Amino acid sequence: MSPRDIALAVSVAVIWGFAFIATEFALQSFSAPQLTALRFILAALPILFVRRPDVSWRVLIALGSFLFIGQFMMLFFAYKVGMPPGLASVATHTQALFTIIIAAIVMAEVPGPRRVFGIVIAFAGLALVAASVDGGRELTYLGLALTLLGALSWSVGNVILKKLGRVDMLALMIWLSVVPPLPALLLSVALGDSPSLADALAAATWQSWLSVLYLGLISTTAAYAVWGRLLNTYPADQVTPFALFAPCAGVIGSYLVFGETFGPLRATGMVLIFIGVAVTVVGRWGTKRS
Question: What is the domain range of residue 257?
């Protein structure tokens, strides 16, 4: 990967890491389904000015369902049945491993021994970070399973993105964002969220509003557009390990914003993640998909 694209990949991961902090503020005013709907309504607003990319509605709905609805709705249900939020933020990024496996099966992008070694190191670090999380409530097998299903859904979306080929990624992310709001709003009604979305909007704090804007416009539209372009340029095993930086960014951001501290176990895990990602990319700068 080129140094510029490495910097972009790291930036996307940092944006996603800080999205967990933004979510913490946003959930002070909105329920999870309401926040999901608002996030993608905002992300879809530029649809009024952006032409739909040359992608069929069938593909748009499938991609929006896997990349956005599956990921976030599964995570929401995981929270409801006992998945600790901190551990969920770590477990979600097993999508990197799932993406590499699916891409190897579907697209014959089989990673070499060096990259496999780097991925193993990174996931060993991820395991240490996960082991250091104190979720504050009991973890359930169902909660963990739903979180991993959300990660699997994200990884399927990643592979669909790769198979699309060259498309306008910014336009694609904007149009994909029209898919989640209706299912999220229907879920909100079905669960009887109180206050209603209208009342929650009226009572929302300015911190919640800024967080929703961050989640919708930066963490969704901009970050996923860059992520999609990188996946269309390089093999999955070069790009997806960078997502493992997101939990590290979330930990650092939580320390800066909330004063959360972390011990040697989590610090060791973060170091291993950085080393693993470095092993997967160093020595292959400039290599692009043919």
Answer: 3-281
Residue 231 lies in a domain: yes
Whether the Cβ atoms of residue 248 and residue 270 lie closer than 8 Å to each other:
yes
Tally Cβ neighbours within 10 Å of residue 82: 16
In this structure, what are the phi and psi dihedrals at residue 259, rounded to the nearest 5 degrees?
75, 20
List pLDDT tens digits, range 10-45.
999 899 888 878 887 888 888 888 888 999 999 998
Give the separation between CA 81 and CA 16, rounded to whole angstroms: 24
Rg of the chain over Cα atoms, rounded to whole angstroms, equals 18
Stated pTM of the model: 0.76
List, for residues 181-214, the tens digit of each pLDDT value. 999 899 888 888 888 888 889 999 999 999 999 9
Note whether 188 and 11 are within 8 A (CB): no
- Residue 212 is assigned to a structural domain of this protein: yes
What one-letter code names the amino acid at 206?
W
Rounded-to-integer distance, Cα 117 and Cα 97, Å: 12
Token readout for 231 is 């996946």
DSSP assignment letter at 218: I
Q: Could you tell me if residue 259 is left (phi over 0), alpha (psi between -120 and 50 degrees) or otherwise beta? A: left
| Count of domains for the chain | 1
Q: What are phi and psi of 227, to 5 degrees?
A: -60, -45
And the tokens for 157?
A: 């979306």
Tell me whether residue 227 is in a domain: yes
Flag whether 74 is in a domain: yes
